Amino acid sequence: MSAVWTWASDWPAPAKLNLFLHVVGQRPDGYHLLQTVFRFLDHGDRLRFQPRDDGAVVLETPLPGVPPDSDLTVRAARLLQSSTGCRQGVRIFLDKRLPLGGGLGGGSSDAATVLLALNHLWGLGLSRSRLQELGLALGADVPVFVFGRNAFAEGVGERLLPVDLPEAWYLVLEPPVAVPTQDIFRAPDLCRATPPLSAENWRPGDGRNDLEPVACRLFPEVGEHLDWLRRRAGAEGSRMSGSGACVFAAFAGEAQARQLARQLPAGWQGWVAQGLAAHPLLGL
Predict the structure, then answer these.
(1) Residue 1: is its pLDDT beyond 50?
(2) Does the active-site annotation cover 141?
(3) What are the structural domain ranges in the chain?
(4) Which of 3.30.230.10, 3.40.50.300, 3.40.50.1820, 3.40.50.410 would CATH assign to domain 11-162?
(5) From 45, 71, 110, 141, the catalytic residue
(6) Angle 282-249-164 from CA coordinates, rounded to 5°
(7) What's the rounded Cα separation, in Å, for the pair 219 and 107?
(8) CA distance 236 to 283
(9) Nearest-CA neighbor of 73 among 53, 95, 54?
(10) Which of 16, 45, 71, 96 is catalytic?
(11) Could you tell me if residue 242 is left (phi over 0), alpha (psi between -120 and 50 degrees) or otherwise beta?
């Protein structure tokens, strides 16, 4: 039986991993053309909502250094209002568990959960495809969280093909840096011409992350954490996610992931999560 989602619910905003990420070209407008596989994890942020009758959108838990009006949760709610003429308001409470600038899609996942939740709670009735279109205006990673399935993505991340992935557990490390995505994509030494892969022929372990060399050069802590993982877990299943900073290793079982997590150097941050078959809100 599917869950019943109400104003009293605790709404999930799961992390994602990029199991590979290739830059296959660049559009005339400067946007990079990508290929990647997104995988959702059973670890992420949580959101709660309370209705307001004055039409205001208020983030009750602003993040340090992020003006509320710039926060993706607020922008998502206001975009939903302006796109539908909705006059209802909302108080947003965000329990932020994913690091900023970590490459885990935290802000995008938060925005997608706002779109899905408020579309439901406000009774707007927009289709998922329409919510994906709105999400793309907020960021390239937002549509996949609305899509709700692990996916092979192309374009700027908006062309999505669902993929079935084997069960897996992941050890995710959080280097003590926040990586600005724009700095990685602006780097002159970024590889921008990797030959495209066929979605039908891709298998877990295939490919690489083209952004890794730039991120490791600009932020040596990323390279240090990635090297540590590869020495202990092997290079085949160890990657940086997105534009960084977080890195991960894949395991067939939970015990292996937790055993390596217990070996982390003092002061390092990391956690173990299971890969999900689908987004928790897919059945909404």
Answers:
(1) no
(2) yes
(3) 11-162, 169-274
(4) 3.30.230.10
(5) 141
(6) 35
(7) 21
(8) 33
(9) 95
(10) 16
(11) left
Instruction: Name the average pLDDT for the chain.
Output: 96
Architecture category of domain 169-274 in CATH: 2-Layer Sandwich (3.30)
pLDDT in tens, 38-76: 999 999 999 999 999 999 999 999 999 999 999 999 999
Length of the chain equals 284
Do the first three CATH levels of 11-162 and 169-274 match, i.e. the same topology? no
Q: One-letter amino acid identity for 170?
A: Y
Residues 6+ apart with CB under 8 A from 130: none
Burial of 65 (0-12, 13-18, 19+ CB in 10 A): exposed
Distance CA 39, CA 141 (A): 12
Sequence-distant (6+) residues with CB within 8 A of 99 are 106, 174, 178, 245, 246
- Residue whose C-alpha is closest to residue 122's, from 166, 153, 78: 78
With tokens 């539908």, the residue in question is 84
Q: At what angle do helices 72-84 and 128-138 cross, to 10 degrees?
A: 130
Q: What is the DSSP string of 58-109?
A: EESSPPTT--GGGSHHHHHHHHHHHHHT---EEEEEEE--SPTTSSS-HHHH
Phi-psi region of 55 (alpha: psi -120 to 50; beta: other; left: phi over 0): left
